[in-house]
Fold this sequence. Notes:
globular, alpha/beta, single chain, 11 strands
Amino acid sequence: MVGYWHNFANPSGPAFPLSQVSADWDVIVVAFADDAGNGNVSFTLDPAAGSAAQFVQDVRAQQAKGKKVVLSLGGQNGSVTLNNAAQAQNFVNSLAAIIGQYGFDGIDLDLESGVSVGAPIISNLVSAVKQLKAKIGPSFYLSMAPEHPYVQGGYVAYGGNWGAYLPIIDGLRDDLSVIHVQYYNNGGLYTPYSTGALPEGSVDMLVGGSKMLIEGFPLGNGASGSFKGLRPDQVAFGVPSGRSSANSGFVTPDTVAKALSCLTALQGCGGVLPAQAYPTFRGAMTWSINWDRHDGYNFSQPVAASLRQLPAAAASKKKAVRATRTAW
């Protein structure tokens, strides 16, 4: 289970120390880094989250529990400036310094605006992320959280914002840990599996969007070619944690549980079915940890329970038990 932790105050409340994040979260995405210009990235810790030294200790403590702590770039108003190779190098060097200072496991690309800026900037971004991974090492964690028009929107009309993330995904597919598309705030989802849009907040939308990412889909608007699918373990889905955390797209924990069960075991499905069960499907992401805490953990507790019942989780548990018995 992936969640975004606010490094700022908003109506969910002030920021709070990373040590107070519930143990149900597996990946904590710190939102957000800032565009410091000329390709450089900066990060300023909210004082309510504690001192920089305490934050570093909190990151290490979460990692000691097996959690990932990742720095997100973007957000609703965020952007990156990568017009040339010099700016790309600044991007790499500044992020490597931040990762080294705070101990982040990697980065999350949550660029909700300005991704349809043309091939040169996309090429520089792909190259820069690959260079950053080479600096950090093979354990580098890379996630993406685009809104669905930037991804599956390429099926409807490939051009401009529609499908703008697809070349980024393609360029980094071998380096990608997980992509969790945001299935909220953008209305229904058009897919090859229905004549109309699959409605927000439905099992079919979450399954249909995930199916497109795994099984691939043709490009629209007269574009040639198609999007090649990703491995199931590289795909999750993104939903709001509650009614206050997004403008639209609210889902119940039961809907999340059914979508996960459908994707991993072909159970609980609606009208859209995967071509086969994908037991290694990665899981669920939500905006946000802070809103979930504000709402009394109404999302994280039931969804974490659902995730623990999935085939991959059960297989991992059996493997751990076998290892323990062998040790005995």
